[in-house]
């Protein structure tokens, strides 16, 4: 089931600081995520929201609208609800040991989950094709 949501529903929770956001986070292996970022940035009109990478460089996290986790079913990825806990849209990364690949302010507020789903599917096909040429 593919649902599309607006790419700007990351809103501050009513009882938290203004820079905390209610969004979910889709986490994928770095290779898969980097391909998806390239696909999203090449796309026509498909915007990409902030993207985190971990210190070891093994995963990327895409900020997506709150509620995405409830229906997320893309193999090879996980979607976690943040409910505003620890996700801050400031220049400093929200989690120790991580950094912004695409920081807030240089990206939309969130990546549309349907657009991300398509980009991750295309990225998986590209990686499979590249690996089969070895």
Describe the overall structure:
- By secondary structure, the chain is an alpha+beta fold.
- The chain has one domain.
- It is built from 2 helices and 5 strands.
- The chain has a 5-stranded antiparallel sheet.
- Strand 2 (51-54) and strand 3 (59-65) form a beta hairpin.
- Helix 1 (30-42) crosses helix 2.
- It is globular, with a radius of gyration of 14 Å.
- The model is unreliable at 1-8 and 12-19 (pLDDT under 50).
For this entry, give a set of tags.
134 residues, alpha+beta, five-stranded antiparallel β-sheet, disordered N terminus
SSE topology string = EHEEEEH
CA-atom Rg in angstroms: 14 Å
Shape descriptor: globular
Name the average pLDDT: 80
- Give a quick account of the main beta sheet: strands, pairing sense, barrel closure: 5 strands, antiparallel
List segments where confidence is low: pLDDT < 50 over at least 5 consecutive residues: 1-8, 12-19
The number of helical elements comes to 2
Count of the domains: 1
Strand order of the largest sheet: 4-1-3-2-5
Strand content: 15-25%
Q: What is the number of E strands?
A: 5
Helix content: 10-25%
- Termini separation (Å)? 34 Å
Secondary-structure content class:
alpha+beta
């Amino acid at each position: 089931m593919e649902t599309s949501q607006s790419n700007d529903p990351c809103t501050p929770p009513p009882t938290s600081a203004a820079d905390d956001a209610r969004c979910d986070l889709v986490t994928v292996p770095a290779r898969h995520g980097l391909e998806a970022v390239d696909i999203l940035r090449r796309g026509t009109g498909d915007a990409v929201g902030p993207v985190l990478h971990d210190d070891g460089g093994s995963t990327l996290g895409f900020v997506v609208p709150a509620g995405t986790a409830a229906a997320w079913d893309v193999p090879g990825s996980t979607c976690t609800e943040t409910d505003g806990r620890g996700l801050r849209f400031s220049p400093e990364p929200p989690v120790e040991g991580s950094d912004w690949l695409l920081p807030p302010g240089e990206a939309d507020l969130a990546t549309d989950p349907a657009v991300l789903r398509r980009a991750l599917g295309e990225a998986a096909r590209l990686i499979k094709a590249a690996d089969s040429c070895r």
